[in-house]
């Protein structure tokens, strides 16, 4: 057998170390498994204490098991050779040997920070930084960086051409991956920023804002698990497609306790996946909508009785509309509609009593009068229809018909018309904040009693119980706060959406990532002001990411020209990778558009190994979907649904349509163009947008 090369020797050496770590992981897994089994057995002891103990034990051990399981692939990814001769291995989670000595340092631990911070200019004691590329538990490649050549021993081997560039060239699949092995210095600083206050991370497309934010969530959980796990971490992104795209990153870092929600499903119990039309969305999200809803919540509901007319003894007692309005105002000055039924009742009784003049009634007194009304059918019917329990969704349905009455100073008659015309039967993504606002304006109606839950709970499986607890919590608007709220694509949030998130983060720390040039909200400055209001007086720490790791330089240079049309001073990034492939723009006759789009897509699927997206204005999607090839690597998407995603190839159909579809058209176009990692082709029937870009 020939002698192994230095590279092979290094690989074999690293494999031996990695094997030792996996053996320990296997040991820990066995221990956790036997704890689950033991915990389950305790459930058979039969007394209540046994059950509680079992639950706690099974819970802890199950959590540990899932973390161990999730961290399995690529568990060990880094090694530092320090100038004192120490070799320190870095991994997705920390692992100790049988003597409790650390054999793998968790990437979030202080001892690992130098892995991300050290540079050739400032090696911070690191001689060589090594990234191990693994498939499952096999080491398949090594990428080294020599940071301090002077301190390197003569026999130190240095392999590879840079871990980052190697990882950037890989084909994209349908999920985002953790970048834990190649986090860059400026990214690391944002990830490890203080856990209090608000961290705002800006930067152009592809600079790693999403990936940094997710690693930050994992970092926060690691540094203050008690606070963030018990208080909860909420991660909000733009769409369901996006949430599916990012959902594997945190589990692969050993974290399974984060709540991921798209902006349409932030409110417990309601879920929206469709957008309102851009025209309606701009009005639904505007801050004056909050004022309109506040007025609607206080006003009598449509069909509410205008007059109360009762007989008692010798009197006819009448409360006119003006009396009723006065009572309503007084009651609502001390509470919300759903929490003030009893005081509304009391005020009615009082007002009616004031109208009593007959001696027989006066002799019996006010208390007897109250008792009489208690069982009086006419009075009870009146109270029920005058002060009904209000469901926020039902009230939301009444909004368009009431705007003229309560909001003529807030929305022009044209705007009211748009809202009436476009009001959906079922809530759209943009309606959810309105329903949430109404929940808070109307107050929480009394919910089911504790008894409904008490008895079967202890016998439930852990998962079942956790689920039930969540459902129960959804009934309450008081406990929907989180300890940390992380908002991705924050530039898109409307003022109403910020109010909705603000309510979930009243006592939270925040991580907010976004890029104004990609905003689909018509007035980005308005969205930023609403964000500042949600953050209140929290200290804000700002970070900017400067390197675009997604797009080839050729694609990004073209997209940057579009960004300059989109906003005055776009935050442009530096793209690091050249492919030699310029974006291509095809202009064809209208009757050739579909055929050409199919031909370009088919060609693109042959040219790239990973995913391809066909993007077109929403009105064109049905026809495109009908003619596109069936391929699991291909997605056909609306421009807004591409937010945050990336594909190896993008075919954009009808860019002019994207530009004219909404007020934020140029910014949306910039989003679409910056989704492609390798190849970009546009197919359209006019060159209007291209001429504008060239100006
Ligand atoms: N340090 C890194 N190492 C390897 N890949 C990275 C690194 N940072 C970012 N990337 C990759 O770059 C791509 C873009 O990252 P990400 O989606 O987080 O960017 P973004 O700033 O959120 O983009 P956008 O604003 O367009 O949504 C992803 O594939 C991500 O994995």
TrEMBL record:
Pfam families: AAA_19 (PF13245). PROSITE patterns: UVRD_HELICASE_ATP_BIND (PS51198). Signal peptide: none annotated. One of its GO terms (cellular component) is cytosol. GO terms for molecular function: 3'-5' DNA helicase activity; ATP binding; DNA binding; hydrolase activity. This is AAA family ATPase. The keyword Transport does not apply. One of its GO terms (biological process) is recombinational repair. ATP binds at residues 203-210. Residues 182-552 form the UvrD-like helicase ATP-binding domain. Keywords: ATP-binding, Helicase, Hydrolase, Nucleotide-binding. SUPFAM superfamilies: P-loop containing nucleoside triphosphate hydrolases (SSF52540).
